[in-house]
Specification:
alpha+beta, 3-stranded antiparallel beta sheet, Alpha-Beta Plaits
């Protein structure tokens, strides 16, 4: 699915991940992050894909750099990143 972005300029943030067969709550965390980010000011949408080996790429689109900074400082987002690094 393609994000419904406005005419440029806007910003893109690219995130890659490797999901193990036993995802240890990855899907739940993903749903929670999508719900939270959808309400984040400046968020324009996202596109994701994952191959059959578990490698995934997500591109999120943002109105401006300030919106990206606010998302990066979101406590729930920080917790999700830390959990992902621990796996």
């Amino acid at each position: 699915m393609f994000a419904n972005t406005p005419k440029p300029p806007y910003y893109a943030v690219i995130f890659s991940s490797l999901k193990e067969l036993d995802d240890l709550g990855y899907e739940e965390m993903t749903k929670k992050m999508v719900e939270i980010v959808s309400n984040q000011e400046g968020f324009l949408g996202a596109e994701s894909l994952r191959d059959n080996r578990g490698f995934g790429i997500t591109v999120s689109y943002w109105r401006d750099e300030e919106s990206i900074k606010k998302w990066k400082s979101n406590l729930e987002h920080i917790k999700a990143q830390q959990k992902g690094r621990e796996l």
